[in-house]
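Researcher: I'd like a candidate sequence for this fold, 388 residues long. If you have to choose between options at a position, lean toward the conservative one.
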């Protein structure tokens, strides 16, 4: 009896249990944010009942997919609930006029009519302003958009006095901030602060200084339009040169290649392929070439601006290089599934955003079809050998 062609799409490729648990994780997160938690728990109960019935007749190996999906649904419900609960509790504390002690983790130049820089601060202590109260230990990330820029460096621990913080009341924007790990955003012309501590040497500060110096050096050597394209395509920074990008975005949109203006995994693949080609002419062992390529990719990630698609490609690339250097068998679709699983467990709200769905969905589809093609080719080779 021959199988129909459509059955080969699901039965022929080997399916790892990680795929089942990731599918359950996605279902659990989606059920939580759509208000279908009761239905999800009923599904978990049904899966466990089916698994128990199959275990009595077919053995425990046949129930692994059912148990994996059930565990994934429970993990998705719990992780989404925990993230929203902890975020809401923290966000409620950052409300009102506050004194904040925080560490400056990043500062980015922007082109805006009301702000010149965007600061990212990791707060560790807060207290209400003009109140004789003790400091409260509470961690959270705040973004401040500034017009006047004080003399502060990345890595400095500062105390901000009398800053008005108002959490977002919009659910959609609040979920976007929760995705970024930001409890509040502040738009102000200036802030009242003084530096509490400035370390002699900071990794973050050194990386930012090197990155900004290289960025400004390249900017001086290129025309504004060329630099805007270079900054967007290869560095992932679209906050500079918006006017120049707007002039060419219409042409990209006309040809249907607008997505090329946003840096994605394709750019990392081109970067890795170019260096792989160059390293072919260097007479060193293969392991040394892999280590050099890994270090170059890490430097590229440090000296550029990250995005979801780039982070996904970079994580898969790191796993790929680790497997190659350790001589461990691997497949792209399983590496991608592992990255998706870890990202959703750490940040479940990512599932609600279109860029996450397209980035992982389309990449998974391409990897799935490639797996099907390899399986069909292997089956064809086996049939041809057996006919001989």
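Model: Candidate sequence:
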């Amino acid at each position: 009896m021959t199988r129909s062609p459509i059955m080969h799409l699901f039965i022929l490729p080997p399916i790892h249990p990680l795929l089942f648990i990731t599918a359950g994780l996605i279902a659990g997160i989606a059920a939580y944010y759509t208000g279908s938690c009761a239905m999800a728990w009923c599904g978990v109960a049904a899966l466990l009942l089916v698994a128990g019935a199959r275990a009595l007749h077919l053995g425990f190996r046949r129930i692994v997919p059912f148990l994996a999906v059930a565990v994934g649904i429970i993990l998705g419900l719990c992780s989404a609930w925990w993230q929203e609960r902890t975020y809401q509790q923290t966000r409620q504390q950052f409300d009102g006029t506050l004194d904040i002690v925080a560490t400056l983790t990043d500062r980015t130049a922007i082109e805006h009519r009301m702000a010149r820089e965007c600061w990212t601060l990791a707060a560790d202590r807060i207290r209400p302003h003009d109140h004789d109260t003790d400091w409260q230990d509470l961690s959270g990330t705040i973004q401040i958009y500034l017009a006047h820029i004080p003399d502060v460096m990345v890595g400095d621990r500062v105390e901000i006095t009398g800053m008005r913080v108002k959490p977002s009341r919009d659910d959609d924007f609040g979920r976007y901030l929760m995705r970024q790990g930001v409890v509040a955003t502040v738009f102000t012309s200036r802030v009242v602060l003084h530096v509490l501590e400035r370390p002699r040497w900071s990794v973050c500060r050194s990386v930012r200084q090197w990155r900004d110096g290289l960025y400004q050096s390249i900017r001086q050597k290129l025309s504004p339009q060329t630099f805007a394209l270079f900054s967007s395509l290869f560095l992932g920074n679209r906050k500079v040169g918006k006017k120049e990008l707007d002039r060419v975005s219409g042409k990209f949109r006309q040809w249907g290649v607008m997505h090329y203006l946003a840096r994605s995994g394709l750019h990392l693949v081109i970067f890795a392929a170019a260096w792989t080609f160059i390293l072919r002419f260097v007479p060193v062992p293969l392991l040394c070439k892999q280590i050099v390529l890994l270090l170059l990719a890490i430097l590229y990630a440090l000296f550029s601006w990250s995005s979801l698609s780039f982070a996904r490609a970079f994580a898969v690339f790191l796993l790929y290089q680790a497997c190659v250097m350790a001589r461990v068998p691997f497949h792209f679709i399983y590496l991608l599934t592992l990255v998706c699983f870890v990202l959703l467990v750490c940040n479940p709200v990512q599932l609600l955003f279109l860029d996450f769905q397209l980035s992982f969905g389309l990449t998974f589809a391409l990897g799935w079809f490639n797996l099907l093609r390899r399986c069909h080719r292997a089956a064809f080779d086996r049939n041809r050998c057996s006919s001989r």
